[in-house]
Amino acid sequence: MDNEHKSPLPLGRLDLRSDTVTLPSPAMREAMAHAAVGDDVYGEDPTVNRLEALAAAIVGKAAAVLVVSGTMGNLTALLAHGQRGQRVVCGDESHIYYYEAGGASALGGMPYQTLPTDAEGQLSLEQVRAALVSDNDIHHAPAGVFCLENTHNRCGGTVLPLAYLEAAHTLAREAGIPLHMDGARIFNAAVALGVEVRALTQHADSVQVCLSKGLAAPIGSLVAGSHEFVTRVRRMRKLVGGGMRQAGVIAAAGIVALTEMVERLAEDHANARLLAEGLASIPGLQVDLERVQTNLVRFELVAAHIAPPDFLANLQARGVLMGSIGGRIMRAVTHYGVSATDIPQAVAAVREVLAFSF
Ligand SMILES: Cc1ncc(COP(=O)(O)O)c(C=O)c1O
Predict the structure, then answer these.
(1) Cis check: omega of the bond before 151, within 30 degrees of 0
(2) If DSSP codes are grouped into helix, strand and coil, which group holds residue 48?
(3) Fold of 14-22+264-356
(4) Distances (CA, A) of 159 to 3, 146, 153, 230
(5) 8 in Cβ contact with 244 (< 8 Å)
(6) Tens digit of pLDDT per residue, the chain (358 long)?
(7) CATH code 3.90.1150.10 region(s) in the chain
(8) Which of 18, 19, 71, 180 has most ligand 1 atoms within 8 Å of CB, for mutation?
(9) What is the 3-state secondary structure (H, E, C) of 248-308?
(10) Do 144 and 177 meet the contact criterion of CB atoms below 8 Å apart?
(11) Distances (CA, A) of 21 to 18, 217, 234, 337, 350
């Protein structure tokens, strides 16, 4: 490997399906190999403790806890915030609702109330206000927790503006309902806005951040919030079987992720823009360049002559992997394993697939 910041992928394969395919950096592997460890369920893993303290400081919360995945982080946060019979108010396109197996409902007895999501990943604050205010009618399930997602995955990595976050948080406070932020890619949002991540997380009562996406750690997410809240999350983590023992080997990579991998996200954003502009120049595709704000490129296969599975299979045959997020909507994601010099290969492969499939 000639470059410390280049994640090795199998030769000739350009994997743009997700930033979850990133491989750990050499510095992460080194840190993992030498991590001081202990039994984390006893609170005795020094590397986990260091990671949790570091993460809490970075997101500006009193405490944080390491969990296995973003899904577990969101689930344990929702279970810690609400109670059986209370509503989880979230967007209809949110990862929490769409991709997390209905966890809060299945395991916590909390029904989801979904609100329409606009193209930018925002929910109407008027609708949020109506959903959060409980009317004491015995027929209605009271609101338990309100969720936002930043950046927004299914909307194509869009960033929620600071003013929107502030207004949403004010609303939630007025209603007395905690705001949980699914910040799987919150560092992408912060880098895109040019602000410290805590400028965003200050507008949430709790946040879930992923180490294993653009930050390239192999495993792990953190849930942060008040001391009392994080203590409840720890209990919920145990409940779902997520208490880990010598988890310092994972946490060591997480520390590298938080300290060395955040700034380089700007490179992923620049590559996503290059890719989006390349794709936008190809007849048969529709790309909304305004919505390419971070490392996700969402585009529509409008060329009717090719079915989405064939488009993806033909691309794969040319060594380029992309994904579909439903129907004719495709997604390509730039990350640590992709460099600017890879982008022309991806654009050329797409152009060829569309040209040859008439
Ligand atoms: C916005 C968002 N939240 C949560 C998750 C869940 O993370 P994990 O795959 O680690 O469970 C993802 C994963 O892609 C995501 O995009």
Answers:
(1) yes
(2) helix
(3) Aspartate Aminotransferase, domain 1 (3.90.1150)
(4) 30, 18, 10, 26
(5) no
(6) 334 445 444 456 899 999 999 999 999 999 999 999 999 999 999 999 999 999 999 999 999 999 999 999 999 999 999 999 999 999 999 999 999 999 999 999 999 999 999 999 999 999 999 999 878 889 999 999 999 999 999 999 999 999 999 999 999 999 999 999 999 999 999 999 999 999 999 999 999 999 999 999 999 999 999 999 999 999 999 999 999 999 999 999 999 999 999 999 999 999 999 999 999 999 999 999 999 999 999 999 998 889 999 999 999 999 999 999 999 999 999 999 999 999 999 999 999 999 976 5
(7) 14-22+264-356
(8) 71
(9) HHHHHHHHHHHHHCCCCHHHHHHHHHHHHHHHHCCCCEEECHHHCCCCEEEEEECCCCCCH
(10) yes
(11) 6, 10, 28, 8, 20
Atom of ligand 1 nearest to the CA of 74: 4
Which residues make up the CATH 3.40.640.10 domain(s) of the chain?
26-260
List, chain by chain if needed, residues with CB within 6 Å of any ligand 1 atom. Answer: 69-71, 74, 95, 149, 153, 182, 184, 210, 212, 221
Instruction: Say how many Å lie between the CA of residue 73 and the centre of ligand 1.
Output: 9
Task: Give the SS3 label for residue 55.
Answer: helix
Q: Say how many Å lie between the CA of residue 60 and the centre of ligand 1.
A: 21
The two beta strands, 320-321 and 14-15, are parallel
Our mutation pick for probing the ligand 1 site, out of 210, 222, 223, 240, counting the most ligand atoms within 8 A of Cβ, is 210
Angle subtended at Cα 214 by Cα 276 and Cα 179, rounded to the nearest 5 degrees = 100
Which CATH class, in words, describes the domain spanning 26-260?
A: alpha beta
Structure token digits, residue 149? 């997602």
